[in-house]
Each structure stands twice: as structure tokens, then as C-alpha cells.
Amino acid sequence: MKRSKSSNAWLAEHVNDHWVQQAQRDGYRARAAYKLLEINEKDKLIRPGTVLADLGSAPGSWSQVAARIVGDSGRVFALDILPMDPIADVQFIQGDFREDEVLAEFVDLLGGRELDLVISDMAPNMSGMSVTDQARSFLLCELALEFAREQLKPGGHFLVKVFQGSDFQPYLQAMREVFTEVVTRKPKASRDRSTEIYLLGRGRR
């Protein structure tokens, strides 16, 4: 099947991308690892001993970063509807975290521990129709925020990828109702043309 000009251009950009090449050298599964590494360098969200959930974790680069930092005293729980190859010291659940059965499995794995942090780099399968894609993206963000509100311990933190658009301000306000402080982050590994931005909610009320 012949590729379109746009997909050829994306492939060429991807292959020549500095962060893609760096990920291959460092053993990360995706360039997204460097977004989390940069944010964590600034905000110290993940530390030795941190207990966290990685929503929409596949292919697993954020879980890789987290597992390398939390150490033996921390825990990384990864959830995705897609399969994900195993990562050392990461407990993975394949399923939809909105479903009671999947949530029950997650709670069992937690084993009474409290979550310090929820991270979400989720994005929908893009259709190319910006209005539709933004609506799908913010639905995922809303679901991630609800999960964080219900599962985080008081004072816990939440990092989520969003795309700037008409739903951005209402979502920002929703986060401010859950967290004592909400700040934006745009890591260097985000492509310049991308409207993606990360919102960090600190201190669950």
C-alpha cells in the first residue's frame, strides 16, 4: 500500500528526530520519555519510594522512566486498553480503567498503598478532524482527572497531557477545583507545532 506524502513526511521527520534517536540509544520505547524526564527534573514528582499509576501507558516509556526512579521502595502501576510488553518492576493491567473489574484489579494490586501520583500521556487515535480529535482528547483527560480525584491520597499530584482548544479553560478550572495549584509545562521534547501541553495538579484537596 502506497504511503501518502504526509505520512512519508512524518516518517522522515520521525526517523531524523533527535529525541527518537536519543530514545533508541538510551533504551526508551518512545521519545515521550524525555518529556517526563524534563518535567520531573523541574518538579520532582517522582522520587525513590513514590507509588504511582501511569494511565494509557503503552508502549511504556513513561513507565520505564518511573520504574528507574522509584526504586525498590516505590511502585509503578501501568494501565492501558492496548497490550504492553513487560517492564521490570512495573505491574501492568490491560483493560479500561473505567470498568469496575479493571478498577478492582488495580485496587487489589495497590494492596492498601496510597497513590502519590497519577500520570497520563493518553491521546486518542487521531482522525485528522481537529474538532473531533480535541473532543476525544478532552474526554480522556476528564476520565483521567476523575481517576486521579478518586485514587490519589490527599496532597497527591496529577500530570496530564492536554491539547489546547475550546475545552482547555473549562478543564483547567475543573483541575483547580481538585488541586491546590495547577501549572502548565511544555517540555522541549514536545514538537513545536504540536498544541499539546501538560497540566500539573499539585496537592489533591
UniProtKB/TrEMBL annotation:
Reactions that this protein is recorded to catalyse: uridine(2552) in 23S rRNA + S-adenosyl-L-methionine = 2'-O-methyluridine(2552) in 23S rRNA + S-adenosyl-L-homocysteine + H(+)
Superkingdom as given in the UniProt entry: Bacteria
Entries under Gene3D superfamilies matching the protein: Vaccinia Virus protein VP39 (3.40.50.150)
Domain Ribosomal RNA methyltransferase FtsJ: 28-204
SUPFAM superfamilies per the UniProt record, alphabetical: S-adenosyl-L-methionine-dependent methyltransferases
Alphabetical keyword list: Cytoplasm, Methyltransferase, rRNA processing, S-adenosyl-L-methionine, Transferase
UniProt xrefs under InterPro entries: RNA_methyltr_RlmE (IPR050082), RNA_MeTrfase_FtsJ_dom (IPR002877), rRNA-MeTfrase_E (IPR015507), SAM-dependent_MTases_sf (IPR029063)
Positions with a binding annotation for S-adenosyl-L-methionine: 60, 62, 80, 96, 121
Active site: 161
GO molecular function: rRNA (uridine-2'-O-)-methyltransferase activity
Cellular compartments per GO CC: cytoplasm
EC number: 2.1.1.166
Function recorded in the entry: Specifically methylates the uridine in position 2552 of 23S rRNA at the 2'-O position of the ribose in the fully assembled 50S ribosomal subunit.
Family matches, as NCBIfam families: PRK11188.1 (NF008390)
Alphabetized PANTHER family for the sequence: RIBOSOMAL RNA METHYLTRANSFERASE, RRNA METHYLTRANSFERASE 2, MITOCHONDRIAL
Assigned protein family: Belongs to the class I-like SAM-binding methyltransferase superfamily. RNA methyltransferase RlmE family.
Protein name: Ribosomal RNA large subunit methyltransferase E
Organism in which the protein naturally occurs: Crenobacter intestini
